[in-house]
Fold:
Amino acid sequence: MLVDIRLALREKLPELPKKLALAARYALDHPDRVALNSMRATATAADVTSTTMLRLARQLGFESYDGFRASFQNELVATGFGSRAGALRGGSLENVGDSVSDRIFETAERNLATTLAHLDQALFDKAAEAMRQAPDCYLIGSASMFWLASIIKTTGSMVLGNLRLVGVEFAIAGEVLGGLTSRDTVLCLGVNPCAARTVDAMRYAKAHGARTIAITDRPSSPLAAGADYAFFAQTESPHYYPSMISLIAVVETLLATVVATGDGRELEMVERFETLRKQSASYIEY
Structure:
């Protein structure tokens, strides 16, 4: 299964030599293209030699590159023609209107479709359970990702009383995660280039036995390497900054799953929140 190959690649990645690591990152980030393209074409796209691709296959226990590629092909067939069509398009902007708005919205639609095609609801169920059961669930999004961590805190607190938003003031993970236990959960957010502080927090959490969740942009992300539950959102954009739409969709799905798979207490918390909000007269409904 492709999931097993990705897991093996992520586990191997930190110890691979430079060229093998480059090939592994390409395979993690472009599984559809590995499935559809020849070894030579894949090697060229990854900026390595065909020999390097063969060595990577053997690192994962395959006798030949054909076996390595076949595993990607089997999963591509299993996911249907949608993923195959997306892979063949190769992320190009062909047939898109010339206006900026056309390009932005077309890319956003493709990002959402690609993200959805590779998501697993069972993984959301497990991550939601980890968040519910934790005495403390730390939310870490550094620099440009802090706003997304804040959204999780603001909206998530309606159904979870254990969310702890980590501010921007700490320099190293131990400053804020010093009391972390194996029962706690740490959720980290980051896209390329990922803030070193967030990566440090993920590694610290993993080293101290906490359950870890990563919401990031690609399987080769350093956050994915330390995550028990990793979710990948497509962030391609003609805009000068990565698109955040798919990341928000992943966050919304995770919080919705917390409620959908809960025991009813989450709904009670929402009802209490709504009552307090109306009583406060702090918001204008329309």
Q: What stands out?
A: The CA atoms of residues 166 and 204 lie 14 Å apart. Strands lie at 137-141, 163-165, 185-190, 211-216, 229-232. The chain has two domains: 2-78, 121-277. The longest helix spans residues 100-117.
